[in-house]
Structures are given as structure tokens and as C-alpha cells.
Design a protein that fits this description.
single chain; 339 residues; alpha+beta; Rossmann fold; 2 domains; six-stranded mixed sheet; five-stranded antiparallel sheet; 19 strands
């Protein structure tokens, strides 16, 4: 899908990057709309942080272009780009107060004292930290430190906000709260945002679109729902959500002999004591509680398959019938059919 030039917040064209004699990023293209929140998602070593650092100007590509807000900034340093970055470790000065940490990039730019005070107070208000303006980083929580780092980025009034694994240092509950805060703030400000993460739940919950990366390339760039419903490659299908994987074909509701790969989401597998059209005999091997649902392991036609169930949970040893409502068919790693 092409995007009108005046609505593009970020464009990467044919980026290549070599580090340590190894190609980390190869011929990467990406176009992000103004005001959009995009996640770069993938495992460690896939090139997502390297890509973010090229956008920020901390790394210069061997080939390709970085265009921010319509301006080619490929060879410019971080201080010359209309972007601001929140680092994984927050990079706060321990001896400075919250106010002074946020004001620091503005002091470097030699802005007037009155302008600095106004912008810092505005940023503190955005992240609800006015009451901590005189505290030092060691005196506030990890979530509050993360919000200080976010305010320090926002106070620079960037055209694009860059976040490098910003929630990885927080515990699970706080991570959910802070990611909701970031998403709410991003929507209110309408700021173009790129976030790097290896956490699929995080990416799925806050992104307008997600670029799933693999070995320096983008495997698929789409909305969270499209990535989940129709993953374009077997790699994406395995990385996003859970998957039952079989070698063969899918017809008449069952796995058959064939030379394709069949992927089935556990939530598309149904087990009951009653036979319905398209269902086949199955027995329950294992039932694992997962909080708000149960993971049920089944045997059917000498094949093992998992189902996610939240009602009418069976017991180990129960006999019944399994029905598959949807299957993803892959050939040579590419999606060829949704059955």
C-alpha cells in the first residue's frame, strides 16, 4: 500500500548495514504514516535495534536513505534530526533531579531559561510527574523513571519518537500499565512513533502496524489483526501467537498426506462430547490451566493437537470429537491458502 508523500512521517529506502563484517540489515524498506505507532518486532539479533539506531542517527547505513518528516537525514547526527529516543536503560543522570534530567537536552540547545521551564513543566504534566520534579532517579520507581525518560524525549518536541525496548526493565504488571500510558500519550499527541520490542503481546496491544523482522529483513508489515489472521510466512505464523504445525494438506476438516505445511491456531480447534459435521474422534491427553483459559492436548487419528478452551473443560482421558474451523496452508514458507 502506497502512502501519500505529505502523510509520511518516516521512510526507510533500501537500508543496508554491516557491523563486525556481517550484514545486519539488508535492503530494508519501511514507510510509516504521520501520527502512526509502529512496532519493530522480532527475536534478539534480527536487526530491529540496529534499524532504530539508523533512524535516530547513531548509526549511518552503508546504503539507502532515512527520510524523517520529508527530509533526507541519512548522514546527519542525532542532534541534527527531528527525532528523540528513549533508551532501554533510560540513561538518566543519577545526580540530577527529575526536572534537570528533562531540561538537559534543552540546556544543550541553549534555549532561554523561561522557555526551558515552560516546556519542562508541560512535559511533567503530560507524564503526571510534577510532584516528583525535585526528586532524583533513585528516589522514584522504575515506572516513574521510564516516564521521566519519555518526558525528556517529548520536551524536545520531536517529529518522531523512538523507543528501544522501553518496558523491558519493568515487572509484568507495571509493564502493562506503562505501555497503556505510552499508547494513550502517543494518541493524544498524535506523534509518529517507532518502538522496538521482542514481546508480541506488547506489539499487538499498542501498535497501529507491526513490522515483523527476521535476519535483517521485514517478513511482513501489517496491522496486528492481519498478522494474526493471515501471517504471510511460516516464520510470522510461528512468531505471532501459538500454532499447531503439521506436514501435509488440509481437507474435509482433517490433516491429510501432502507436501505442504498446515498451521492451525489452538483457538480454532474445538473439542466436545458431541459429533458435528466435520468433526473426528479424539481423546484428551493433558489439560493445563493458563489463567483465563485452559490448554487442552488432544490425540486424533494418531496426531497430536492443542486447543485453547474457556468453557466445558474436559478431563484427561475423556473421549469426544475434535473440529478444526480454520487452517493456514504454507508452501516453501509462504502462505498460499486459508482453508
Amino acid at each position: 500500500m502506497s502512502i501519500a508523500k505529505d502523510s509520511v512521517g518516516l521512510e526507510l529506502i533500501g537500508l543496508n548495514k554491516i557491523l563486525g563484517g556481517r550484514t545486519i540489515i539488508e535492503n530494508l524498506d519501511l514507510s510509516v504514516k504521520k501520527g502512526e505507532m509502529v512496532s519493530l518486532l522480532g527475536p534478539s539479533g534480527c536487526g530491529k535495534t540496529t534499524t532504530l539506531r539508523m533512524i535516530a542517527g547513531f548509526l549511518i547505513p552503508e546504503a539507502g536513505k532515512v527520510i524523517l518528516a520529508g527530509k533526507d537525514v541519512t548522514t546527519l547526527g542525532p542532534d541534527k534530526r527531528p527525532s528523540a529516543m528513549v533508551f532501554q536503560n533510560y540513561a538518566l543522570w543519577p545526580h540530577m533531579t527529575v526536572f534537570k534530567n528533562i531540561a538537559y537536552p534543552l540546556k544543550i540547545r541553549k534555549l532561554a531559561k523561561s522557555e526551558i521551564e515552560k516546556r519542562v513543566h508541560d512535559a511533567l504534566g503530560l507524564v503526571n510527574l510534577m510532584h516528583h520534579k525535585d526528586s532524583r532517579p533513585s528516589q522514584i520507581s522504575g515506572g516513574e523513571q521510564q516516564r521521566v525518560a519519555l518526558a525528556r524525549a517529548l520536551v524536545q518536541e520531536p517529529d518522531i519518537l523512538l523507543l528501544d525496548e522501553p518496558l523491558s526493565n519493568l515487572d509484568a504488571k507495571l509493564r502493562v500499565k506503562v505501555r497503556e500510558d505510552i499508547r494513550d500519550l502517543q494518541r493524544r499527541l498524535g506523534i509518529t512513533t517507532v518502538i522496538v520490542t521482542h514481546d508480541q503481546d506488547e506489539a499487538l496491544s499498542i501498535s497501529d502496524r507491526i513490522a515483523v523482522m527476521n535476519d535483517g529483513r521485514i517478513e511482513q508489515f501489517s496491522t496486528p489483526q492481519a498478522l494474526y489472521d493471515e501471517p504471510a510466512t511460516e516464520y510470522v505464523a510461528n512468531f505471532i501467537g501459538s500454532l499447531n504445525r503439521f506436514n501435509g494438506n488440509f481437507a474435509e476438516g482433517r490433516i491429510q498426506i501432502g507436501d505442504n505445511v498446515v498451521g492451525i491456531r489452538p483457538e480454532d480447534v474445538y473439542f466436545s462430547s458431541h459429533q458435528v459435521p466435520g468433526s473426528h474422534a479424539a481423546t484428551v491427553d493433558l489439560v493445563v490451566p493458563r489463567g483465563h483459559f485452559f490448554e487442552v492436548y488432544l490425540s486424533s487419528n494418531d496426531q497430536k493437537i492443542r486447543a485453547f478452551m474457556s468453557a466445558d473443560i474436559p478431563q484427561v482421558g475423556d473421549a469426544g470429537f475434535v473440529r478444526i474451523s480454520k487452517a493456514l496452508i504454507y508452501k516453501d514458507g509462504k502462505l498460499v491458502k486459508v482453508a
